[in-house]
Amino acid sequence: MAISSTNNFEAKFEKSYDKMSELKAFDDTKAGVKGLVDSGITKVPQIFILPPKYRVVTCGTKFIFPVIDLEGIDEDPIKHKEIVYKVRDASETWGFFQVVNHGIPTSILDKTLQGLRQFFEQDNEVKKQYYTRDSTKKVYYNSNIDLYRPSVPAANWRDSIFFSMAPNPPRPEEFPRQCGEILMDCSKHVMELGCSLLGLLSEGLGLDRCHLEDMGCAEGLALVGNYYPPCPQPELTIGTNRHADADFITVLLQDHIGGLQVLHQNQWIDVPPTPGALVVNIGDLLQASILLMSNDKYLSVEHRALANKVGSRMSVACFFSTCTMSSSKLYGPITELLSEDNPPKYRATTANDYLYYFRKKGLDGTSALLDYKI
Questions:
Q1: Is 42 inside a domain boundary?
Q2: Which residue intervals of the chain are DSSP H helices?
Q3: Which of 9, 66, 175, 350 could form a disulfide with 90 if both were Cys (CB 3.0 to 4.6 A apart)?
Q4: What is this structure's pTM?
Q5: What are the beta bridge partners of residue 316?
Q6: Per-residue pLDDT tens over the stretch 335-349
Q7: In the chain, how many domains are there?
């Protein structure tokens, strides 16, 4: 009798729960997840609760996440060759790696995290002037870019602010006062590092050092600050659903709390927060462009971010892509890497079209690249 009553209650609850209305009510506050936390909630709202099959299951692992030291890369030819090999190996086997001694001062990275944190933790009445779902703006803030996508299992425990930094950055007055100057400075350093990484990736493919840059892989840069407030029930939700990035490469700065995980050999591996280090990963557009023999290719790998119970987590993702530019340029398999035995595996697409499909699909746990396979 008790079991039957419980089942009847659950059925009634599911029937009465109007997910779309709850999503809209949350969105209309323009306060994001941080607004929920500030209100004093002690339980995760239903819109954030993942179905059991999507929830995080932790397990031990024997894998060590790859870390590559870039010191001396332009001074010692032997060292340069070793770094090219390490970048190629990590890109083929992991699709991810960390870099240290990358040339960006720690003070710049720390100030970037600090400035963005100050934006998220300011009074909501000031902050919400940037809140919008108009992704054509050069600066915009919201919670969950795919909030209303029906394929997404639950809303993520995360707020974000987006900046289109290259080729045409926002005007100084368009930035929030807390972070405009430091973001412009940080973006210049990241662009230099990105070009260096694209050079290493090109060399790893046996191509000319400038090949990927000449393809336009460094023309556009978008920067996204992600804020993960403390969660009262982190086991029921997630910071960011599993996904692969819809760009060429991503350079990520995470704070001391950590929470980023990478899918490697069907296991979720923690990416340890390392002071001064930056995380680099291959995006979908680069994987679709690079096809080599057998297993000799770079991988765009799924990753996710966990929710945490104690402390607010910050990360800054720098996306190298032309998605924010009005370009009809097609990206597909690199001709120099194709042969009769290694035919193209993906159809060509523009960066804009790919991003449109990526956003339409949402972070639903499936790869957007599947739709482009030949």
A1: yes
A2: 2-16, 19-28, 32-38, 77-93, 106-120, 124-127, 180-204, 211-214, 284-289, 351-361
A3: 66
A4: 0.85
A5: 225, 253
A6: 776 677 777 776 767
A7: 1
